[in-house]
Design goal:
The chain is mainly alpha-helical. The chain has nine helices and four strands. The longest helix is centred in the middle third of the chain and has 26 residues, at 86-111.
C-alpha cells in the first residue's frame, strides 16, 4: 500500500533479535529459574540491531507460487492455538501440552536413571531463594507464589512482542515447563523426592504441579492475542506491525485472574505439603 509507512531495517532486525531472545530466555529460564534469563531479550535485540548495521547482501528472492501464500496463521493445530476464542486456545494448548508432559514423564520413568536432574533441582531452588523451609505455611506459600510469578511475567512479555506464523512466543514457556515437569516426575529428581519413582498415573493430581502448569497455560492462552508484531518465518520474513492496539476483553482478563488465583492455590497446597512433612 502506498500510504503505509515502511518499517526500517534496524527496527525489523531489533524485533527479530528480541523475539529470538525471548525464545532462548524461555528455554534457559525453565532449567535455571533465574530472572537473569530475561537479559537475553535486550541482548538479542542489541545483537539484531548491530547485525542490521552491516552492509546488506543483495540476493534475488524466488517467486512464491500464488497457491502457497497465506495470511498470518497456521493450518491444523495452529488454527486452534491461535483461535480468536480464549477458551478454544486454552483447551488446545492444554491438550497439546498434556501430550508433551505425558511423553516426557514416560521417557523420564522408563529411559532415564532416577535422580537424573536432582542437581538441577537444588540449583533451581537456591536461585529462587527457596533452599530452606519457612516457619509457617503462609510464609512458605507466599515465597512459592512470588517465584511462580516469574514465568507469568515472561509469558506476558513474550506474548506482547511477537507471534510467529500465528503462534505467540509466550506459548513456549508453559510448554517447556510441562516437558521439564514430566522429566522431573519420571526421574524423581525433586529436592524433596517421592518415596519412590512415580509411573504415569492420575495420582499426580494430588500434587500442586499440575495446577501450576494449568495456570501458566491459562495465562498464555489469555494473552495470546496481544502481540504488537507478527512474522510468518522468524529467520526469513520481516516482522509486520499488527494493526491497531491489542484489545483486552473481559474473557481474557477473567482467564488471567483465574490463572493467578490457581497459582496462589497451588502455592498454598505445595507449602502445606512441605511444612507438614
Amino acid at each position: 500500500m502506498s500510504g503505509a509507512r515502511r518499517t526500517s531495517p534496524q527496527r525489523i532486525a531489533t524485533i527479530r533479535g528480541a523475539g529470538i531472545g525471548f525464545l532462548l530466555s524461555s528455554i534457559v529460564f525453565v532449567f535455571s529459574w533465574s530472572p537473569l534469563a530475561l537479559l537475553l531479550v535486550p541482548l538479542g535485540a542489541a545483537v539484531g540491531y548491530l547485525v542490521s548495521l552491516a552492509p546488506p547482501r543483495v540476493r534475488r528472492a524466488p517467486a512464491e507460487p500464488e497457491n502457497t501464500r497465506r495470511v498470518d496463521g497456521s493450518k491444523g493445530l495452529g488454527n486452534f492455538l491461535g483461535h480468536p476464542n480464549v477458551l478454544v486456545r486454552f483447551l488446545s494448548l492444554m491438550v497439546f501440552g498434556t501430550v508433551l508432559f505425558l511423553l516426557a514423564w514416560t521417557a523420564g520413568y522408563y529411559l532415564l536413571p532416577a535422580g537424573a536432574f536432582h542437581a538441577g533441582a537444588e540449583a533451581q531452588l537456591e536461585s529462587r531463594g527457596l533452599g530452606g523451609i519457612a516457619g509457617s505455611v503462609s510464609d512458605e506459600s507466599l515465597g512459592i507464589f512470588l517465584n511462580n510469578l516469574l514465568p507469568v511475567v515472561l509469558i506476558v512479555l513474550s506474548n506482547l512482542v511477537l507471534r510467529v506464523n500465528g503462534i505467540p512466543l509466550g506459548y513456549v514457556v508453559p510448554l517447556f515447563n510441562l516437558v521439564g515437569y514430566g522429566l522431573f516426575i519420571g526421574t524423581n529428581s525433586f529436592l524433596i523426592p517421592y518415596p519412590e519413582r512415580l509411573a504415569p498415573t492420575f495420582a499426580i493430581m494430588e500434587r500442586s504441579g499440575p495446577y501450576e502448569m494449568t495456570a501458566l497455560v491459562m495465562i498464555a492462552a489469555a494473552t495470546a492475542a496481544w502481540p504488537r508484531y507478527t512474522v510468518r518465518r522468524i529467520f526469513r520474513t520481516e516482522p509486520e506491525r499488527v494493526p491497531g492496539a491489542p484489545r483486552v476483553t473481559r474473557q481474557q482478563v477473567t482467564f488471567v485472574l483465574l490463572g493467578i488465583a490457581l497459582l496462589a492455590g497451588a502455592a498454598w497446597r505445595e507449602a502445606s505439603m512441605i511444612v507438614g512433612r
